[in-house]
């Protein structure tokens, strides 16, 4: 049996996992939850906010005010990182090598 502290710690340590489950209404620990990788969840997260920014620019609609999500000790998503990966490198990426 999983106790509440484990679930709370999981959500603090893996905020994108929590965001993804909320977005798709996926229960914690369900078969669908366990079948997803954190890398797949990260790509969904990045794509969601990428297109949210494009919509604002294209349609000039005011962007929804959202509070900064501070997941405790891990705040790596706030960093500005420019991708150095080419399309070819992305296509050749072996996602099975990523273990989460």
What features would you describe in this structure?
It contains five helices and no strands. The protein has one domain. It is an all-alpha fold and 100 residues long. α1 packs across α2 and α2 crosses α4 (38-59). It is extended. It has helices at residues 4-13, 15-24, 31-35, 38-59, 87-91.
Write the element-wise H/E pattern from the N-terminal end onward: HHHHH
Question: What is the share of helical residues?
Answer: 40-55%
Largest sheet: none
Total tally of structural domains: 1
Q: Averaged pLDDT, please?
A: 75
Concise overview:
By secondary structure, this protein is mainly α. The protein is 52% helix and 0% strand. The mean pLDDT is 75.
List keywords for this structure.
100 residues, mainly alpha, 5 helices
Q: Any chance you could write out the topology, listing elements then pairs?
A:
Blueprint: H1 4-13, H2 15-24, H3 31-35, H4 38-59, H5 87-91
């Amino acid at each position: 049996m999983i106790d509440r502290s484990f679930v709370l710690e999981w959500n603090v340590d893996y905020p994108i996992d929590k965001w993804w489950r909320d977005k798709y209404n996926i229960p914690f620990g369900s078969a669908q939850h366990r079948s997803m990788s954190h890398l797949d969840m990260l790509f969904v997260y990045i794509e969601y906010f990428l297109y949210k920014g494009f919509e604002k620019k294209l349609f000039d609609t005011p962007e929804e005010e959202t509070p900064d999500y501070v997941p405790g000790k891990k705040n790596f998503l706030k960093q500005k990182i420019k991708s150095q990966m080419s399309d070819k490198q992305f296509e050749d990426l072996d996602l099975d090598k990523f273990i989460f």
